[in-house]
Write a structure and sequence with these properties.
about 500 residues; binds NADP nicotinamide-adenine-dinucleotide phosphate; Aldehyde dehydrogenase; 7-stranded mixed beta sheet; oxidoreductase; Ald_DH_C; 5-stranded parallel beta sheet; binds magnesium ion; about 20% strand; Ald_DH_CS_CYS; 15 helices
């Protein structure tokens, strides 16, 4: 064990975790006292008891958020005041970087280096960016006739329910709460039962930054209990959901069954990465294909899980790709050099292993991986896995696996590649690699996805919207466009003569 390894393990042993909910500015147990075990995928051990919130707790959290909204303690403040608090909130994330990163890694299994450098920074940057933006957004005056004035203004929708997944727990929470708070809403945040801990800390840090009590409430619990109660609640004005397409469809139904709350969904993907024979940056393409599917253990909504390669270069490309797979050998997530950690839990591990079995039995060729790893650790690790000779009708090409499994498909001409790329219910992200600029533009236009990359894959910035076409959802997180989700558009007519 080297020094940094020892120190993260030591810090982990000393970490104090409070699994209670945050409602009305107070840490509280679930009303009926229920809790669940929060298990670390790093070694399968219990980290903490976490409040198992359900309908009554959601009622309390929504009442707290509603009260805070109605008395205008936050909605009524000047954007410049909200800015100061959001920027302070962002600074507090950075000041607590090590603790947040360690908590995230222990709770969901991603490598500590990624949690420290990427997740904490990106979450803090999101809060800061919306804080900085919000006092620079102007309303409109319509070009009406001279005898009247029509103001077009944006107002907060009211109480926002945010339901987020476990793969980037802190960042997905920040993508929701930053624009929702910046625009003056009150929020009830429901993190995933699989990784609830950093969301609870975010709630505390928001209070420390000066956010008034009751404006941000955090209620951990199961999806079918706390999540469903929040999405069905008649006093919630907007539900902002990130998660699977299956649950996203339920969220839309809950809205229709109740008060027609706005329902924004950011859902799954089966993203294609297309490499043409005239690719200019071959090694970069190899890095992107391998790095983007194996980053975060393959648990990324936009991971390019289908690699489409033009047949003449396929073998050469795969040879280079295979040489890179060792860079993603599963390791101890608390070891600073580890690039691939543990899957979030045993359920996810079993799901991934079932897809690997399906790939083999459907006739794809297993090139590398295909097995569990680090079984003795007690945690949930899978080898980086690549299947060649995949057809687009196989389950490993059609369904989102959400693990480190890459499906390789050959194509003979680019029109066929586009048809295959689009032959999916999803439309989150896509990528085309070619040196031919006309081809790149034509393909980028033809790909039905919320984000298309040309000669790159994972460029990312808070300034651009992120979301999907088709069954990858209807909302856009990030950028100024996300403000639309959390604001009502009001027209005020004023008679002048
Ligand atoms: P999930 O099972 O759909 O869960 C997402 C959230 O919804 C969790 O907090 C979950 O709670 C909750 N939930 C489950 N059932 C519910 C119900 N009936 N009513 C209300 N809430 C319910 O998804 P996941 O497995 O956590 O996350 C992985 C998925 O998220 C993948 O499909 C991935 O592609 C997608 N994702 C999309 C984006 C994007 O921006 N498009 C980003 C990241 C992830 P519990 O976990 O506590 O049950
Ligand atoms: Mg966990």
């Amino acid at each position: 064990m080297n020094e940094s390894n020892r120190s993260w393990h030591e810090r982990a042993a000393q970490l104090k975790i409070d699994g209670r909910a945050l409602i009305g500015g107070k840490r509280v147990d679930a009303i009926d006292g229920a809790h669940f075990d929060c298990i670390s995928p790093v070694d399968g051990r219990k980290l903490a008891d976490v409040a198992r919130c359900a309908e009554k707790d959601i009622d309390a959290a929504v009442a707290s958020a509603r009260g805070a909204f109605e008395d205008r303690r936050w909605a009524g403040t000047a954007p410049a005041a909200r800015k100061r608090i959001l920027i302070r909130f962002a600074e507090l994330l950075l000041e607590n970087r090590d603790e947040l990163a360690l908590t995230e890694t222990l709770d969901m299994g991603k490598p500590i280096a990624a949690s420290r450098a990427t997740d904490v920074n990106a979450a803090a940057n999101t809060l800061r960016w919306y804080g900085e933006a919000i006092d620079k957004v102007y309303d409109e005056i319509a070009p009406t006739a001279e005898n009247s004035l029509a103001l077009i203004t944006r107002e907060p929708v009211g109480v926002v329910g945010a339901i987020v997944p476990w793969n980037y727990p802190m960042l997905m929470a920040a993508w929701k709460i930053a624009p929702a708070l910046a625009t003056g809403n009150s929020v009830v945040l429901k993190p995933s039962e699989k990784s609830p801990l950093t969301a609870l800390r975010l709630g505390e840090l928001a209070l420390a930054a000066g956010l008034p009590e009751g404006v941000l409430n955090v209620v951990p619990g199961y999806g079918h209990e706390a999540g469903q109660a929040l999405a069905l609640h008649n006093d919630v004005d907007c539900i902002a959901f990130t998660g699977s397409t299956r649950v996203g469809k339920q969220i839309m139904q809950y809205s229709g069954q109740t008060n027609l709350k706005r329902a924004w969904t950011e859902l799954g993907g089966k993203s294609p990465l297309i490499v043409c024979a005239d690719v200019a940056y071959l090694d970069r393409a190899v890095d992107a294909a391998i790095g983007s599917i194996f980053y975060n253990q393959g648990e990324s909504c936009n991971a390019p899980s289908r690699l489409l390669i033009e047949r003449p270069i396929k073998d050469m490309f795969l040879e280079r790709a295979l040489a890179r797979v060792a860079d993603y050998a599963p390791g101890d997530p608390l070891e600073a050099r580890t690039t691939m950690g543990a899957l979030v839990d045993d359920v996810q591990l079993q799901t991934v292993m079932r897809y690997i079995d399906a790939g083999v039995s459907e006739g794809a060729r297993l090139l590398v991986g295909g097995d569990r790893a680090r079984v003795d650790s007690g945690g949930f690790y899978v080898q980086p896995t690549i299947f060649d000779e995949v057809r687009n009708d196989m389950s490993i090409a059609r369904e989102e696996i959400f693990g480190p499994v890459l499906s390789v498909l050959a194509f003979d001409d680019v029109a066929e590649a586009v048809r295959t790329a689009n032959a999916t219910p999803y439309g989150l992200q896509a990528s085309i690699w070619t040196r031919d600029i006309s081809k790149a533009h034509k393909v980028a236009r033809a790909l039905r996805a919320g984000t298309v990359h040309v000669n790159q894959y994972d460029e990312d910035d808070i300034t651009v919207p992120f979301g999907g076409y088709k069954q990858s959802g209807n909302g856009r997180d990030k950028s100024l466009h996300a403000l639309d989700k959390y604001t009502e558009l009001k027209t005020t007519w004023i008679r002048l003569d």
